[in-house]
Records
---
Amino acid sequence: MICPVCNGMEELSSPCGVCGDSVVDEGRATDWLGPYAPYSPPEQPAALSAAGPDTTVPEDCQHAVRCPACGTFSTAAVPLLP
Ligand SMILES: [Zn+2]
Ligand SMILES: [Zn+2]
């Protein structure tokens, strides 16, 4: 399963939920919100253990997107390709 946006096969296009303009891709939300994000608090043992075998396999790639018109950050789910 691959993400067509992460692999450069497709441009992410999604309307801004606030103003309706087209948002721009800011990369994977998992990179953005993940445990290695620079602003994450370093002491979170519960979150680390939660990333174990119980983690469900995502069926789509969560991308962080930003609206250049109004500056709103949000996420967009990109369906994965087999
Ligand atoms: Zn992706
Ligand atoms: Zn907007």
---
Amino acid sequence: MLAYTYIEHGKFGLLDKPKPVLEDPRDAIVRVTLGSVCTSDLHIKHGSVPRAVPGITVGHEMVGVVEAVGTEVTNVKPGDRVTVNVETFCGECFFCRRGYVNNCTDPNGGWALGCRIDGGQAEYVRVPYADRGLNRIPDSVTDEQALFVGDILATGFWAARISEIAEEDTVLIIGAGPTGICTLQCVMLKRPEKIIVCERSDERIRFVRAHYPGVLAVKPEECRDFVRAQSRHGGADVVIEVAGADDTFRLAWECARPNAVVTVVALYDKPQVLPLPDMYGKNLTFKTGGVDGCDCAEILRLIEEGRIDTTPLITHRFPLSRIEEAYRIFENRLDGVIKVAIVG
Ligand SMILES: [Zn+2]
Ligand SMILES: [Zn+2]
């Protein structure tokens, strides 16, 4: 089968590999019907994910149809349409029992698919702990509607969940890329009084204004003054930093009011500075990534009810055989791309 593979630092390639087989009674094999390319795939390509293992099939954002299940799998059966979770988790360890599935102590716990074990930019993928990692897609929900449930939408949902958003709050989201937009949709479900999105790209600001007319959008250079003017207490009550650019961590805590929650979703390429003397007395609470992706069933229900719709993010579609082109467009942000769908 075709499998897009991390060959070495800076190089991915489309290889012919054997179809995966069940290796454990808790595994499932999924035929990938729709996948996507994530910024984290680019982080692997450029060497900022040291845990990534050369030779593995990349891709961790996908939906498909269950092809085979191990003898201990009870939640899904062959023929089921499913979302695949970016995270592998056992459901039983100290962290899993508390919902911190990103820190599952299983050797493959956390982000393993498409990083440390073969992922889903391929025709088939083996999913460990299939009872945890797969969620059935309701009949009325399409593959495109469900595509981001296991990764960037799970991330946005988790970020909104942990950020302690109240109805009287002004929430600032920094970054309107794909994960920023998913975060925005999940923050909107909390109905805060005001939502401000800070984004550098004019194209993405236009996207926010077109799709979410009640949301305020601002460029980074005007962000501090704008947020202060739009807030009752000198800054945003909640800041969610999704951008991960050189200066956005500083922007995040500078825009926060005293005693605010600052949630850091972004994965940075470089270490960030936490200048404690500068922020002394601000009494901020920082929450940091990555996602605990254990809310996929609830997210699918919200999609089914029409309360979350991420399909406008899919701007391009390619067959797996042309995945190189999909990467070129996504990586270089050509042609107004937000997300590409890889059709299996
Ligand atoms: Zn991802
Ligand atoms: Zn666990």
